[in-house]
Predict the structure.
Amino acid sequence: MRTHRAVNAGRAAKSDMAVKARQPLGARITERLGGALVRVLLVVVGLFWLVPAVGLFLSSLRSPADMSTSGWWTVFTRPSQLTLDSYRKLLENSDITNSLVNTVLITVPATILVVVIGSLAGYAFAWMEFPGRDWWFLGVVGLLVVPVQVALIPIAELFGAVGLFGTIFGVILFHVGFGLPFAVFLLRNFFARIPRELLEAARLDGAGELRLFARVVMPLGGPAIASLGIFQFLWVWNDLLVALVFSDSGSQPVTVALQTQVRQFGSNIDVLAPGAFLSMVIPLAVFFAFQRQFVSGVMAGAVK
């Protein structure tokens, strides 16, 4: 028996060698170097992706005179031009500092409200029985295709009538309203894959719906909730259109403040670079902090 297996293994090895020998030389070289080439290509793409961020960071550490006479890459040959004066002036600019505070006051509540309400609604659509549940969910899915531009004027008129136009709370409400359809759709589909036996066992142990949601569903839905939180945070933090329409000078976020500063580009270039870098690095830090949960949530439904 062992001899027979050894003979079969030898025949299989010879067959594989024969197949490889019939392959063209280029195909064999590509097969051997394919893994290394892919790694090198990914490294090159990653470095090119980082070039704008590195350039913006180095520009924020240069004086206006240096920025107007040479490119940011000259810091590698003349590192003495690096300085923190631009960040010092940025902190003295009340428009930028107030807008950064407004951005946090808008982004954090809009993200938390969407995650909490979307989680509750997703659980209800996935595991609770109520009249018209499927039709209501179809309505939520239909809201995903409604563009933001369609609702700007009607909601602006509504907010003006109730006194919310130009306030931080009005901007938060708009982001929550347009973030909930995607949140409900994402979390409902994720929660629906939780084994029914697990929920029934918790109910037999005396757990109510709220306790079941908090103790069982929320921990299991952590990756999807983290993904939703990252998506919502990035959308709100980088938003410009909604903020331009619904905010005023006292409630504008950093995107609007920087857009306003661009109009005076010649006189405040030393404020634009550090302000733009701060507005970019914060969402990047949030993304990398929750990167593992984000990847798990995105890939949750890809493999059974």
Observations:
- The chain has two domains: 2-83, 86-298.
- DSSP finds 15 helices and no strands in the chain.
